[in-house]
Amino acid sequence: MKAISYKYYILLTALLIITACSKEDVSENAARLRIKLTDATSLVFKELHVDINDISVFATDSTNIEGEWIPLEYSGGEYNLLTLMNGKTVQLVDQYFPSYKNIEKIKIQFGNNNRLVTVTDSPIPLQLSPEIIDGVVIDNVKADLATNVISSLIIDINAALSIREVNGNWFLKPAARAFPETHGGSIKGYVSPMEANPYVAIIQDTDTFFTFPEADGMFYFFGLNEGAWDIYLFANPESNYRDTVFTDTISEGQKLELTPRPLRLVFDAPSN
Questions:
Q1: Which distant-in-sequence residues (6+ apart) come within 8 Å of 85 by Cβ?
Q2: What tens digit of pLDDT does each residue of 16-42 get?
Q3: Complete domains list, the chain, with CATH
């Protein structure tokens, strides 16, 4: 991968926590469902606001194997995803959900006030792609709810693949995955120096995720499949620091912390 000029190149990492169904369902047969939204990466923008109107889940159980869509008691809201990075969260809904349900799909319906803000503070309205007018459906969630257990799900939107421009018009078409919070492993590390304006990408097969480190250089990825991941540390090309790439491997559920701490980018002195 080539280095990218990104003084304002933004990672989107938002976690929105939701729990489902009605508080009247509180009983010994009730479960708790939490859904978290995370975001992967963006373009050269300072802000990205998404307008979420409704969220529902498709659930099956032993008495209804055909399944049904169940709307969550969610009143809607707008969120600047760029304020939520590297695990920061905001809670949207707290409800109970019938236990012994199997959550197989999640559906998100967006409003019409989605927008970008550029480095010049100019807002760009995002139109909804025709394919998502009726909502974005995320398949293969596979979450089983049990009595008196809080089940958390992650919705991960890859922003770099969710925004497109056609003839001067900008469109929102979220590319998303969803998985139980306990799924997979994680990679955590630290990069320096911050004068390099670094960002980090990890790649496995067709999966690519990006993040910008915190002020102390920390970066964090989670919900990762086991196996080998290529880890790219990119520096701003104008900083004269050298990009670095290496490979590390995680097992299922492993919380991998990269060493050394921090990973130091090499400075290339400009030639005369």
A1: 11, 12, 13, 14, 211, 212, 214
A2: 333 333 334 444 566 656 666 665 444
A3: 15-180 (no CATH), 185-264 (2.60.40.1120)
